[in-house]
Design goal:
Length: 357
Amino acid sequence: MSKMNAALYQGNGKLSVKQLDIPEIDEEEALVKVRAEGVCGSDLLMWTDQDDPAGVWSWSEEPNSLPTGHEVSGEIVAVGSKVDLNRIGERVAVDMIGLGVNCSTCFFCRQGQSKQCINKKPDSGGGYAQYVKRNATGCFKLHENMGWDEGALVEPLAVSIHGCRRGKLGGGETVLVLGAGNIGQTAVAAARAMGAGKVMVTARYSHQSDLAKALGADVVLPDGGDDLIDAVADETDGRGADMTLESVGGRSGTTLFQSIELTRKQGRIVILGGFWVPIQMDWMEPLMKEQSIIFSNCYSILDGRHDFEVAIDMMGSGQVNLKPMVTHRFSLSDVQKAVDTAYNKKSGSIKVQIHQD
């Protein structure tokens, strides 16, 4: 079989399944049959008009020639000549945008920071397809008791683990997570698993609040206003959080400003969310409070271990259970329903996944 099904963005918020060639692997790559793929908020943002002068969210008219998707689990079905043949049949989570496409020889790759690679391979398509190809070194074996749905959650958990590691989360510290979407939920789980003493999270919807509690949040807070300020003060003896994980991003600086206000003096603020437009802010407050603002982009190798490895260990051991995050599952042929459900925040969705047999 030389062809595969792949969902391509057609413009104006519409996707359709087309036939594409199955990617050809090089000597260091693996061909992975996709079993589960998560719909990420960044996928939706890619298809919106970022240049709208009114700041209104609208679907882009520009179609894509390749499928997107970076939350992938699947089975290795073929490998290149330099890859151990025993890896065929392995169940894996795939680092689609870092180790899976890096050059391995530039300065950043040699430091284990593959996401910062300056010689990445050309885009060959993502997980909204039957098959993907990536460097075999970017394919991480799943624990035997992990299902495909959990495998596709390794990536978003790794994002939050990376943030906690970059922020140097200490045991017993009070952590505030701003936002209870996909990354906010995995941030709650990661902070709890990595030793936080108290985990607080802001949530807009009741289903987000319920899940955050199940994943380890001690306190769920309103997502803005004086009530939020007062609640954080009450929970921290007036100091503010030791570390805040900002998981929202977007077109507004609201959560960035909140993170500065709600974090204690000499505390740390870790930015996980992507701000898609320039944000103006007053830098005097974080300066006077001597706060550290740390930007965290995806995942890498820290202290000799890739964030995917840490995530798989947490999930495989049962320390973290993210199964309740997956609220909706669709087939690839129903990709439009999957995207519409993820886009509609009133649908009750948290993590929407596309599953394939």
